[in-house]
Amino acid sequence: MTFVPCFVFIFLGAPYVERLRGNRALSAALAGVTAAVVGVIANLALYFALATLFGTVEPGPLAVLVPDPATLRPVAVAIALVAGVLVFALRWSVLRTLGVMLAGTVPFLSFVVERRTTRDLRAAA
Fold first, then answer.
1. Within 3-93, where are the H helices?
2. 47: Cβ–Cβ under 8 A, 6 or more apart, which residues?
3. Which pLDDT tens digit goes with each residue over 12-40?
4. How far apart are the C-alpha atoms of 103 and 87, rounded to whole Å?
5. Among residues 52, 57, 54, which one has the least CA distance to residue 83?
6. What pTM, to 2 d.p., does this model score?
7. Is 66 helix (H, G, I), strand (E, B) or coil?
8. What are phi and psi of 3, to 5 degrees?
9. Are strands 65-67 and 57-59 parallel, antiparallel or unpaired?
10. Cα 42-45-49 angle, rounded to 5 deg
11. Residue 113 — φ and ψ, nearest 5°?
12. Which of 120, 72, 83, 125 is nearest to 105 (CA)?
């Protein structure tokens, strides 16, 4: 629900953006906004990548997030590497890559959950 206003602004404003490109002042402002949005997306991508690939990420000097290398998650790294190869080396579309990665990880995750549940039930008995 949070993103609904953003989509409304995009869909309602999209037809007018092409007309605004002719105006130099507005075009410069839109270029600045585009640069800011790209920066925010890059920051979020880095934040989520660190949180996914490492178990512990703590603020370091200058409030820069510093991951603990000992908490590297090998399964997450393997999934990221395979996805990177599919997208960049094999030139697969992002949608196709997501479908393959989801199909490959869901059975694996169900296996891990089942194994942990069985282990916990045996330990409780």
1. 4-20, 24-53, 74-84
2. 65
3. 877 777 777 778 888 888 888 889 989 99
4. 16
5. 52
6. 0.60
7. strand
8. -85, -5
9. antiparallel
10. 140
11. -65, -45
12. 83
Residue keyed to tokens 């993103």: 3
- Express each pLDDT in 88-106 by its tens digit: 999 988 988 888 888 777 7
Look at phi and psi of residue 63 and say left if phi exceeds 0, alpha if psi is from -120 to 50, else beta: left
Task: Map tokens 């409030």 to a residue.
Answer: 63
CA 72/CA 54 separation, integer angstroms: 4
Torsion of CA 80, 84, 86, 87, to 10 degrees: 130
* Residue 77 phi, psi dihedral angles, 5° rounding: -65, -40
Backbone angles phi and psi of 54, in degrees to 5: -125, 145
Report how far residue 57's alpha carbon sits from residue 40's, in angstroms, rounded to the nearest whole number. 19
Q: How many CB atoms within 10 Å of residue 117?
A: 10
